[in-house]
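Repro:
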Amino acid sequence: MRFPIRLPLAALAPACLLALLVACAPAFGRQADGSVVVRAEPAGEGWYAAVPQADVGRALVIRRAWAADVYVPRGFAPPPGTCRLWQPELPPARQAPFGPCPSGEPDVPAGTYLIAG
């Protein structure tokens, strides 16, 4: 004899709340502290994030689905027309310098973000 599994509604509430919060989190725009939220898209084995020209020089919050946000402090985002590879495990002062943006489809290493100014 089979018994249907019945979960109490209270058990589903935390999962529903988490799904709602993730869905409602902004994918781009400015936050109250002046930082800019940008969405990361897959590129090679890593991620690509473009900074709107009006927001260059601000702190960045790079957001992608189902992953922790990556914070780039003010002054570390690349200037317009340049790019920077950002490795979240390194401190800001140890990141790669600004450089020219790659032409065509960028091949970004795994775990790394290519930030385009």
